[in-house]
Amino acid sequence: MGSQEIPFKIIYPHAAGIDVGSRSHLVAIDQNKDNVREFGVYTTDHQNLITHLRTHGITTIAMESTGSVRHEVARIEYG
Question: Topology of domain 15-66, per CATH?
Fold first, then answer.
């Protein structure tokens, strides 16, 4: 039997998810897995991440992290 993808109901259309890692951050802006982008962990990478979020009209961010690296991403001035 084949697997079927069932999309989640979109509650926050201007939200993104960030998987925060020590070597890179993965950013998803919609339910299309082809739109997941990877960003580095340095200042220039964070600036590119912010540009990416702004380009797509993102106003809400959910982050997942198992370490203290999330604190650096949380300090990014987005708005």
Answer: MutS, DNA mismatch repair protein, domain I (3.40.1170)
Domain boundaries, the chain: 15-66
Reduce the DSSP state of residue 73 to 3 states and report it.
helix
CA angle 71, 57, 12 (to 5 degrees): 75
Residue 79 has pLDDT above 60, yes or no: no
What is the model's pTM?
A: 0.77
Q: Give the DSSP letter string of 6-69.
A: -PPPPS-TTEEEEEE-SS-EEEE-SS-GGG-EEE-SSHHHHHHHHHHHHHTT--EEEEE-SSTT
